[in-house]
Specification:
Oligomer: single chain
Strand content: 25-35%
Distance between the termini: 15 Å
Number of strands: 17
Shape: globular
Largest sheet: 6 strands, mixed
Helix content: 10-25%
Length: about 350
């Protein structure tokens, strides 16, 4: 069981029952942090690339080194504009049976799927590569929490511990692919098998949890999400994904010159930060300090562990532990403490 921060309501000394919405979040949060929460992400975007030059082609399009991927390995990457801004982010899994028999499975936000598909289709001319749609053909069931491996049968299937590693497996006789995530294990069945596999995972001890509860853990972990903290106005360094997504040793890719120049010679104008809020505020709330606008709230949640918290892209001069003023569209101004991410390690309410 992970070393969890103290429950926010308990820390405040509250004995009153939680309202239904808060209890819903608290119950799901307990499953995600102490058991095996099951989040259905089957609507997310999925594509596949096959062919002898699939790795070479994709390496020239995205920020990560895809050429180096062996069968069963994977990586996180971003697709950028020529000016180095984020069009889409994606997980790339080599799911082919061998290093020579290549199939790359691309997993992305549904909101980034069309842009990713259009870009790849436009640029694959001349390569021995085929692009396939997989969104409807594959489901995606995310198991999150310390019991995720046990419910998925990850150890018996031989799933590695490196993030994005994957392996072909079965759930009680139904074929699936297991994928290692930072929070647990993703289970990918055929689209027609999603309902059956979901029921089997629940029978093994998984508890269905809604997306809004999973968002709380994402904010606590400080992981940006497309069209929340990332879009075509944001660079990888501003979103804090360079270490996870960008290779500086591979060849050229779209937007590489700007990303490399910023990495070696400059500093991003903004940073992704956490906010420990005095009270909950909506997305889009303006952040100010000494009367100057410094950024806007990109995601806002009420964490059972930390209370109201948020993610925001703020000017680089705003340091962790400083206090800023927020001016929501309705109601009076409020304040927040700026937090270095993730919240669980040195952020607000941390027990570390």
């Amino acid at each position: 069981m992970p070393d969890l921060p103290q429950d926010h309501a308990a820390a405040a000394g509250s004995t009153a029952p939680l309202p239904p919405a808060a209890e819903h979040v608290a119950a799901g949060y307990r499953e995600l942090t102490t058991g095996a929460g099951l989040v259905d992400g089957s609507a997310s975007g999925k594509l596949a690339l096959t062919g002898a030059e699939a790795r070479t082609f994709l390496t020239g399009q995205v920020t990560a080194d895809v050429e180096a991927l062996a069968s069963g390995a994977g990586t996180y990457a971003a697709l950028l504009t020529p000016k180095g801004k984020i069009v889409a982010d994606l997980r790339i899994l080599h799911v082919g049976p061998s290093d020579e028999d290549v199939e790359l499975l691309l997993l992305c936000e549904r909101s980034g799927l069309q842009a990713l598909f259009d870009h790849l289709r436009r640029h694959l001319v001349g390569y021995d590569v085929e692009l396939h749609k997989r969104t409807l053909q594959l489901g995606l069931l995310s198991l999150v929490g310390p019991r995720a491996d046990a419910v998925a049968g990850a150890t018996a299937a031989g799933l590695g511990h490196e993030e994005h590693a994957s392996v072909a497996a079965e759930v009680d006789g139904t074929p699936v692919r297991l994928v290692r995530t930072a929070a647990g294990v993703d289970v990918l069945p055929a689209g027609d098998d999603v309902d059956a596999v979901r029921a089997l995972l629940v029978a093994r001890g998984a508890a269905p949890v809604d997306d809004d509860v999973a968002e709380v853990l994402r904010v606590e972990a400080g992981r940006p999400r497309l069209h929340h903290e990332m879009d075509d106005s944001v660079m990888p360094a501003e979103a804090g994904i360079v270490e996870r997504a960008v290779s500086f040793t591979k060849g050229c890719y779209v937007g590489q010159e700007t990303v490399a120049r910023l990495h070696w010679r400059g500093r991003p104008n903004r940073h992704l930060r956490g906010l420990q809020l005095d009270r909950a505020v909506p997305v889009g709330t303006v952040i100010v300090q000494d009367g100057r606008e410094l950024g806007r709230v990109t995601t806002s949640v009420d964490s059972p562990a930390y209370g109201p918290i948020a993610l925001a892209l703020v000017r680089r001069e705003v340091e962790p532990d400083s206090t800023v003023v927020l001016r929501p569209g309705e109601g009076g101004p409020t304040s927040a403490r700026v937090v270095a991410l993730p919240f669980r390690h040195g952020g607000a309410g941390s027990t570390a």
